[in-house]
Design goal:
Radius of gyration of chain B: 21 Å
Order of helices and strands of chain A: HHHEE
Low-confidence stretches of chain A: 1-5
Order of helices and strands of chain B: HHEHEHEHEHEEHHEHEHHHHEHHEEHH
CATH superfamily of the domain at 1-52 in chain A: Glu-tRNAGln amidotransferase C subunit, N-terminal domain
CATH superfamily of the domain at 3-255 and 465-490 in chain B: Amidase signature (AS) domain
Distance between the termini of chain B: 9 Å
CATH topology of the domain at 3-255 and 465-490 in chain B: Amidase signature (AS) enzymes
Strand content of chain A: under 5%
Strand order of the largest sheet of chain B: 1-3-2-4-6-5-10-11-9-7-8
Number of helices of chain B: 17
Distance between the termini of chain A: 48 Å
CATH class of the domain at 3-255 and 465-490 in chain B: Alpha Beta
Mean pLDDT of chain A: 89
CATH class of the domain at 1-52 in chain A: Mainly Alpha
Number of strands of chain B: 11
Shape of chain B: globular
CATH topology of the domain at 1-52 in chain A: Histone, subunit A
Strand order of the largest sheet of chain A: 1-2
Helix content of chain A: 25-40%
Oligomer: heterodimer
CATH architecture of the domain at 3-255 and 465-490 in chain B: Alpha-Beta Complex
Chain lengths: 101, 491
């Protein structure tokens, strides 16, 4: 049986997770989400009740395997259609900020 | 009776008899949207011009008697998670405010090919995450039965639109109950198809191993009609099933005589309202009188379906929603010094509180050190849920239970307590994890608020679910119950 970590989720962990998810978060939100997530993780702890030592995981419910299509050239979205919602662009490119300053 | 109160079938007959035109019908529904839209707030966008253009085209088709189908000229609402080419589609999120998709969802194209009329995009919980529609990034929806109550969620706008006469039918999406629960809370019919039955191409993704699009309608036969139109293989969604689509209409009225129906004892959960339990027990007795044999069954892992869902769905969501980075579409924060900061600010400003909670929960469950304990364990529990259903369906043809343990609750009642909110989906979630199908059909009122009976059938047996639901509907008068907003218009 898998032993779940106790949900003593810390503020530092919340900040770490928000950073992993590229989610800006205020100090007040860190505390609020920490408390709410602790509560949610406590409820989720019930998962631990099931003995799954001999149970395979289900990642998806599909009957099909390796769905292929013919290797044939087909039309795709024109560049202008793909770019029409871009907040910032230059010519036919999405324009982004420098990754490093 | 006003046109907007009628079923698809009635209206179809009137259209082909030239009794009415699609433009008249569409104007009747648009008039009801104008009359009550401010009360329900069911729509985010009403596509009036598009609707009237489509209605005129449908009328030409009807006049020429060219390729007339059952949905030709019928006004339908679309949940905002469905992409419609060049029509603002936001999934109820500020991060997609103003986004106009460059292509339409497959279900949208199929409805277009039938000649259906699009009324607009219906409000929903942001990215379909919620059970009350209070997580909409725009405004909450009000239940047409009692305006200070929620319509359920996440397809609350679609449900309220159908229940108030602001649409003849609607499409919703269901990841953990988001079609069935709002259908139950607003007194309409809603069906979650088996995963793979309906193409997800062009559906703004929430949890990709669970999401399904399905119909929300006035009655069961309308539901069969719409499902028949949208179901079937789509080469643009490799997870859509190549299984042939049965002719649901030819079997829906076959009755339940000789059918074996199971009642999972675990579905009478703690906290279920007595009036709901009573209505479900009465419904079961009625189906027995219709000739079904009833037996109690057990789905022993039902109690851990909810926790498994609240790992799997947020985990998939945290990965799906990574695409909202302010680069290719949607909101982009101003004033960031570099790309990473722009991502962080864009997502901080664009996402609402529940979406952020689930992204963090999902990211946490997938993060190094916790993956096995949470995500892998939840996937194993999913296997146990699937096996529970398999064992039950060896003995019975379909399962019966409530759709929601409660009737519609007051706006604001659960917004401060995420765990209490999650409990709304306790009896709908297993069908998503177990990859079976389920339908909710009205089965009574408690203090003037609708109750839904849920019929769950094996994977790809939507025909069975519809057949049982119809047998119940036909033996009762509940389908004739209309929300006060709809009745007021008739008076």
């Amino acid at each position: 049986m898998v032993v779940l970590p106790k949900s003593s989720l810390s503020s530092a962990e919340v900040e770490h997770v928000a950073r992993l998810a590229r989610l800006g978060i205020t100090p007040e939100e860190v505390v609020r989400y920490r408390d709410q997530l602790r509560h949610i993780l406590d409820a989720i702890d019930a998962l631990n009740r099931a003995d799954t030592s001999a149970v395979p995981a289900t990642a998806h419910p599909l009957e099909e395997r390796n769905v292929m299509r013919d290797d044939r050239r087909e039309s795709c979205l024109p560049a202008e259609a793909a770019l029409k919602n871009a907040p910032t662009r230059e010519d036919s490119y999405f324009k982004v900020k420098a990754i490093q300053e | 009776m006003n046109l907007f109160q009628r079923t698809i079938r009635d209206l179809h007959q009137m259209l082909i008899d030239r009794e009415i035109s699609s433009v008249e019908l569409t104007e009747s529904v648009l008039g009801q949207i104008e009359a009550v839209g401010e009360k329900t707030k069911a729509y985010l966008v009403v596509t009036r011009d598009l609707a009237l253009r489509q209605a005129r085209a449908a009328d030409e088709r009807l006049r020429a008697n060219r390729d007339v189908r059952s949905l030709t000229g019928i006004p339908i609402a679309l949940k905002d998670v469905l992409c419609v080419k060049d029509v603002v589609s936001t999934a109820g999120s500020q991060i997609l405010n103003g986004f106009t998709p460059p292509y339409s969802a497959t279900v949208v194209e199929r409805l277009e090919a039938e000649g259906a009329v699009f009324l607009g995009k219906t409000n929903c919980d942001e990215f379909a995450m919620g059970s009350s529609n209070e997580n909409s990034g725009y405004w909450p929806v009000h239940n047409p039965w009692t305006l200070d109550r929620v319509p359920g969620g996440s397809s609350g706008g679609s449900a309220a639109a159908v229940a108030s006469g602001e649409a003849v039918a609607a499409l919703g999406s269901d990841t953990g109950g988001s079609i069935r629960q709002p259908a139950a809370l607003t007194g309409i019919v809603g069906l979650k198809p088996t995963y793979g039955r309906v193409s997800r191409y062009g559906l703004i993704a929430f949890a990709s191993s669970l999401d399904q699009i399905g119909p929300m309608t006035r009655d069961v036969v309308d539901c069969a009609l719409v499902l028949h139109t949208i179901a079937g293989h789509d080469r643009r969604d490799s997870t859509s099933s190549p299984r042939p689509v049965p002719d649901y209409l030819s079997t829906v009225r076959n009755g339940v005589k000789g059918m074996r129906l199971g009642v999972p004892r675990e579905y009478f959960v703690a906290g279920m309202e007595p009036a709901v339990e009573q209505a479900i027990r009465d419904a079961i007795r009625l189906l027995e009188q219709q000739g079904a044999s009833i037996e109690e069954v057990s789905l022993p892992h039902s109690d851990i379906a909810l926790p498994a869902y609240y790992i799997i769905a947020p985990a998939e969501a945290s990965s799906n929603l990574a695409r909202y980075d302010g680069v290719r579409y949607g909101h982009q924060a101003e004033g960031a010094r570099n790309l990473i900061e722009e991502y962080m600010l864009t997502r901080q400003q664009g996402f609402g509180a529940e979406v952020k909670r689930r992204i963090m929960l999902g990211t946490y469950a997938l993060s190094s050190g916790y993956y096995d304990a949470y995500y892998l364990q939840a996937q194993k529990v999913r296997t146990l849920i699937i096996e529970d259903f398999k064992r039950a369906f060896e003995k019975v043809d379909a399962l019966l239970g409530a759709t929601s343990p409660t009737v519609a609750f007051p706006l604001g009642a659960k917004t401060q307590d995420p765990v209490a909110m999650y409990l709304n989906d306790i009896i709908t979630i297993p069908a998503n994890l177990g990859n079976v199908c389920g339908i909710s059909v009205p089965c009574g009122l408690a203090d003037g608020l609708p109750i839904g009976l849920q019929v769950i059938a094996p994977g790809f047996r939507e025909d069975t679910a519809l057949q049982v639901a119809y047998a119940f509907e036909a033996a009762t008068d509940f389908r004739k119950l209309q929300s006060p907003l709809m009745r007021a218009a008739a008076a």
